[in-house]
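Example S7 (C-alpha cells).
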C-alpha cells in the first residue's frame, strides 16, 4: 500500500496561516490585512472623517493607533452610558444624504468610486460620532482659550496689514545711548526683563527713566515705531528701538484695534483654530495616560 496520496492530503489539510496579527488591545486582535485595507482606502477615509484621519502620511503603527484609540474611546463612552447603536448611525447617514441631496444609490455609487464598502463607511461614521462625543465630553473640559490668546493670534496674523490701526496703553522705558557700557539693544532688553522679575537694576541702568502712555494712537508715530508696536503682543516688551539718542522699549499693557469689526469677524475662527490645536495636544496627552490602563501589544 502506498502512502503517497494520503500523505499529500494530510499535508494539504494542515491549517494555513491566512493572516498576521500586528497588534492586540485587551482581547481584540488587529490583523495585517485590516491595516492594509485601511492603508489602501486612506484617501476616502480622510474625506469621510477628517477629524479621525487627520495626518498627511501614515505609517503602520499610526494606523494601528487609530484602531486602538477608537477601542479606548468606545470603552470609555460605554462606561459613561453613551452607546452609538446602528439606528443612530443610520439616522446620521440619512441626515447627511438629505443635506447633500443624495439618494442611497448616489451614496453607494460614490463609495464604490472611492473603493470603500458601505459597511466600512457605516463604521467610520459610527467612530466619528463616538469621537465627537469624546471630544465634547472628555477633552473640551480640559481646554480653555483666553481672550488674550485670541488677540495675540489675531495680531500675529495681521501684523503686516497696514490698514489696521491700533491704540495702546504703554510704559516707555528709556535710557540714553551714551549711558550704556555695552552698546547693544539686546543687553537693554534683557535688563528690563530681569528688572520686571526682580525689581533690581545694574549700576549702568541707574538713569533709566519711564513714561506712562495711555490711549496712544498710531497717528503721528514714526513708521519704524508703528512696526515695532504692531509686532509686540500684550504683556510683552517691544524690541528696543533707538530714537533721538535714547534706547526705548515699550511694555504693552493693552493693545486694541481702533476699528475692531475685522477682529470680531475673525474672532470665532481664531478661537476655533486655537481650540483645535490645544485640543489635539490635550487629546494626545490623555491617550498616553490611558494606554497604560489597557493591555496593548505591538507585534
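Recovered sequence:
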Amino acid at each position: 500500500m502506498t502512502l503517497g496520496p494520503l500523505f499529500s492530503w494530510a499535508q494539504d489539510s494542515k491549517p494555513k496561516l491566512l493572516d498576521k496579527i500586528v497588534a492586540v488591545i485587551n482581547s481584540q486582535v488587529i490583523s495585517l490585512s485590516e491595516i492594509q485595507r485601511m492603508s489602501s482606502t486612506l484617501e476616502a477615509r480622510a474625506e469621510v472623517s477628517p477629524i479621525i484621519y487627520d495626518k498627511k502620511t501614515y505609517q503602520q503603527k499610526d494606523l494601528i493607533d487609530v484602531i486602538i484609540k477608537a477601542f479606548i474611546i468606545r470603552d470609555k463612552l460605554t462606561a459613561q452610558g453613551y452607546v452609538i447603536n446602528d439606528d443612530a448611525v443610520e439616522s446620521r447617514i440619512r441626515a447627511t444624504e438629505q443635506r447633500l441631496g443624495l439618494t442611497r444609490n448616489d451614496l453607494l455609487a460614490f463609495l464604490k468610486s472611492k473603493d470603500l464598502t458601505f459597511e466600512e463607511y457605516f463604521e467610520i461614521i459610527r467612530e466619528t460620532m463616538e469621537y465627537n462625543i469624546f471630544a465634547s465630553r472628555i477633552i473640551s473640559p480640559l481646554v480653555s482659550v483666553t481672550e488674550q490668546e485670541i488677540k495675540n493670534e489675531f495680531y500675529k496674523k495681521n501684523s503686516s496689514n497696514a490698514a489696521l490701526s491700533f491704540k495702546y496703553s504703554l510704559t516707555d522705558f528709556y535710557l540714553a545711548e551714551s549711558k550704556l557700557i555695552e552698546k547693544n539693544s539686546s543687553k537693554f532688553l534683557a535688563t528690563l526683563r530681569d528688572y520686571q522679575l526682580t525689581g533690581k537694576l545694574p549700576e549702568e541702568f541707574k538713569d533709566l527713566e519711564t513714561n506712562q502712555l495711555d490711549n496712544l494712537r498710531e497717528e503721528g508715530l514714526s513708521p519704524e515705531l508703528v512696526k515695532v508696536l504692531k509686532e509686540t503682543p500684550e504683556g510683552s516688551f517691544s524690541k528696543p528701538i533707538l530714537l533721538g539718542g535714547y534706547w526705548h522699549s515699550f511694555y504693552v499693557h493693552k493693545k486694541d484695534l481702533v476699528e475692531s469689526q475685522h477682529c470680531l469677524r475673525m474672532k470665532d475662527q481664531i478661537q476655533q483654530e486655537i481650540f483645535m490645536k490645544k485640543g489635539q495636544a490635550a487629546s494626545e496627552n490623555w491617550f498616553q495616560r490611558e494606554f497604560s490602563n489597557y493591555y496593548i501589544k505591538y507585534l
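Notes on this example. The chain has two domains: 21-144+274-298, 165-258.
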